[in-house]
Amino acid sequence: MSSRFFRNALVLICLSAHLVFAQMPSLPQHHDEPFYADLTTYLIAVGEQLAGCTEVITADDNGVTLQAALNTTMENATICMPSGPGVTMSTNLTVPGHVNFVQHSPIIFSGTGIALTIGSLTSQPYHRAYRLWVVRAIQSPWTSEEDIGIRFINVNTSDIHIVESRGFTVGVQYLADGGCVCYNQTKVQLILNNKIGIDLTQQHSGAPNANTFWGGRFAHNTGIGAGLSRYGVRFNSLDLTYTSANENRFYGPSFELGKPWAGLADTVPILMLHGQNNAVMAARSEGNSPHFADVRNTSQLNQFDVLFLGGTSTLAVAHSADNPGDSIITGGGVLKVHQQATYDVWASGPFHKTWTGTITIPGVAIG
């Protein structure tokens, strides 16, 4: 049969699905939903949107049908949620490592704990594709770090698109648990009203390394988390079995963390508790704490570049007393190196075998 037949059949299925969604309570229009000029254009777009799906789920049954579909034994299956206002559920969903999951509408999470878990210790994602969208039905009070929108476990070499994670203590967490969270490409759209936007962390000697993140708006609505600290990206370790998460790159993120509502509490784009040789490039920092990054413990050799500063934000890095203090921050054509009083760049050895003196240039020692 022709591909046109299959596409037309799929369009009819999609239309039926959308008629089901039309009976559901509507949410405010999301930034991600396009406008279509007429029904024909809409149906063709929907058909193309879902053309690669193994199964399309529309049931509003607290996630029972969706979880059953995700539990398929078919390798590389793609489970999809079509465009619409979304599905409300209290179920803690788990996506096995052998399944792709594509959302064109949000999960509105009314439960507790982790809304959506991708992978597990026994089913680790490799070469998978995800488009994920989770909204907490009621704003979190930020009292528990097990209140998480999306958690990835040992995801590796995958294409990830975070449409939105909103209203949790931790928006998105990448957890290397005895394995590797490595070589992933993540497109970030909206990280909203979370205490910690994205959390790169590990336990049991797991390693979160060499991941690339593109874009993303990290923000808070008026009054959210009044008087409480909040952070854009956190580099962490849960058990200190691996404290050198490295070569993670964030390109073009925008941090607007709501300093007016935090008051004296921190609104810091980058909290580097444990990490080395990571980079945040071409960032926007507006209305945050004066320092762009808070670098602690043995974290070292991290680089930060800020294209735009607004409000109380400045080109500065705060280092804890026990930190090497060698972060580099740039912005607006200005280079600021935060370092120790003595910092070896190159040890040449004696310039002449009979010369044993020292030449000193302000800020540089040659010896």
Descriptors:
single chain, 367 residues, mainly beta, 9-stranded parallel sheet, 6-stranded parallel β-barrel, 4 helices, 11% helix, 38% strand, globular, disordered N terminus
Query: What is the distance, rounded to the nearest whole angstrom, between the alpha carbons of the first and last residues?
Result: 79 Å
User: Structural class, judged by helices and strands?
Assistant: mainly beta
The strand count comes to 29
Biggest pleated sheet: 9 strands, parallel
Order the strands across the largest sheet as they lie in space.
4-7-9-11-14-18-21-23-25
Percent strand? 35-45%
- Oligomeric state of the chains present here: single chain
Overall morphology: globular
Short structural description:
The protein is mainly β. The chain has helices at 3-22, 39-49, 64-70, 259-262; strands spanning 55-56, 77-81, 87-89, 93-95, 99-103, 107-109, 114-118, 129-136, 148-153, 159-166, 170-177, 180-182, 185-192, 196-203, 207-209, 212-214, 217-219, 230-235, 249-251, 254-256, 267-272, 279-286, 293-295, 303-310, 317-319, 328-331, 334-337, 359-361, 364-366.
